[in-house]
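Handoff note, outgoing to incoming analyst
You'll be picking up this chain. Sequence as last confirmed:
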Amino acid sequence: MNNKKIDFIIVNYFTIPYIELTVKSIHKYVKHPFNIFVVNNGENEAAENDYIKLTEIFKDDDKVTILKGVQQINGADTEWFNCKIDGRKVALASQNKCLAQNIGIKEGDGDYICLLDSDIIFLNEWTERILPLLEDNLFVSHKYEPGIEIAREQFMIYKREDMVKYDLQPNIDYKDCSGYLTYFANKNNHKFTILKNSYNNPELKSKHVLKLRGGEQAFVDDIHFLYHYARGSTRDNTWVEEWLSETSKYLGDDKKDVVFWVGIKSKDELLQSKHGGFKYLDISKKCWEWWCEKNDVVFFPYETASIEDTGAHRPTWQRWFDVFKQIEAAGINYNKIAVIDGSTLIRWDAPSFFKYAPKGKLSCFRSLENLRWISEGVAGYKTFFNDYEFELNKYISCGFQIFDKSHKKFLTELEEFYMKNYDDIIHLQTQTVKKGTDQPVYNYLLQIKNIDVVMETPPAYMLTHLNRFDWFGYNWQLNEDKVPFFIKYGYIWFYSGFPQRGDRYNLMKQTWDFIKGNYE
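Most recent structure output, in case you need it:
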């Protein structure tokens, strides 16, 4: 076996979920020595956040090196690069990609250089079939682009010694990133190999290993080799989630989504009295257990906090400190984690909400139900946060959030901040501001640390303040249909915003008695 080393060069431009799968496929199907260089392009704070996320995700993988790339610019009509040889206009983003690829190439020392897009996964072992081709070919590419007559570099591999000998670093002197290599090969009569590909030959789509709505597959010796997501696909989130789900299954990733259900029955007398003995948690628990089993989701009841004194350290705080610790201690191979309040019920036929949570982003809901309460809370903590200019329209609810492993760092920092500033936080929480426990501080830190937040889950998954918005009503004009609006039109019901916490149990019990037949 040829034991020469391969340097994989991958450019990231806000594609972290893809890259995790690309790296996994390299580990699974590349039997030669290799290193992976992920070069992070982007813009300002957003790019810095991606760099931090990538560093955290791959911190234990000694094969992966995360590098800072160039500032990515996109969108404006004037942002074009004129290729030197043929004068063709190419988006400046292509030039930035070339610059980033060269950063990775210079960092490595492998015998082979493999340029790789972030949305490619390998489908099989391939090095013993492809590397020998480089003895008689300048490069191997997975695809030829007929419209501009160049081999593409979504997968392109060549020898480092040839790059040095012929000065073949990626550039767009001719047509696009990989165009110059094609131009040089043709001009100097060097052979190169283009693999069979369903993009060039649509009849091969019937042989796709991954039965997805978009993408292309390449073959070597008629054996499936790699799958490229982007070609012919949309960026619609449902398609993206389909890609992530199907490729994870193919690669043998048996991770499961988890509902981290917060159901601690605190022994603190004040909390016991305030919450009516927490009787409502028993109703919520059996409802969520049933839904999780139906939807192949791990149900993880959070019923014991790490710090026993839940009067001094409220469960609403400790849930953030314990979520990753307890799930990992239980040995659960998790994908995404939804942290759900125990003051909720979920409708029996609610579709899974995990599909609305893009990987690498914190998925949640904007909280605008009680603007006076929110604005007073934010104002009350402003001095504590050094007069930080908080964006009120980005205030989120802490009752429903979906995380993945990339958010461990933020929650660790949240815990450290809480412990360091405990006395001040508790004073503000109980004596001065008295607007929420964790939620104001949590929101401030989200914005200060510029955590990437999305709010794409349909509002039916968060019906809150049911009495204030008249969700308990029904269409009185149709006497035969007295199903309350919240049951007809909502998926998750938050029993919050009541004058007395005791109302929560009574209303949840009435709801459960009305619907429990659907959970059998």
